[in-house]
Amino acid sequence: MSEEAAAQGGRPQGPTIFSKLLDGTIPCKFIHEDDKAVAFMDVNPQAPVHFLVIPRKPIAMLEEAAEEDGEVLGHLMLVARKVAKEQGLDKGYRLVINNGVEGCQSVYHLHVHVLGGRQLTWPPG
Q1: What is the pTM for the complete model shown?
Q2: Of 24, 26, 107, which Cα lies nearest the Cα of 59?
Q3: Is residue 122 part of a domain?
């Protein structure tokens, strides 16, 4: 199923694939791990370098983040910057957060896509 088709299906019930990665049910090689967030390579990369940064705290979508989530949201950006540097994205990269059905969100656990390694176009689609 395509990302777009999955997003059009709306918000599924039950644990997400990301919660299963975090609890170890699904094995994953994290490229960054700390007490607030993890990062890992995207299984369906859309650029030469494409990784995801997710909070350990289950926040379904940006729309549902609370004021007290501000620290973890900022931390996700700092982790994205750190891992982008480690991945050699010196010339730039793009951060993307999909939010809701029309934002093409297919996994309802907040995540930041980090894409780079080539010239990206605008508008993205």
Answers
A1: 0.90
A2: 107
A3: no
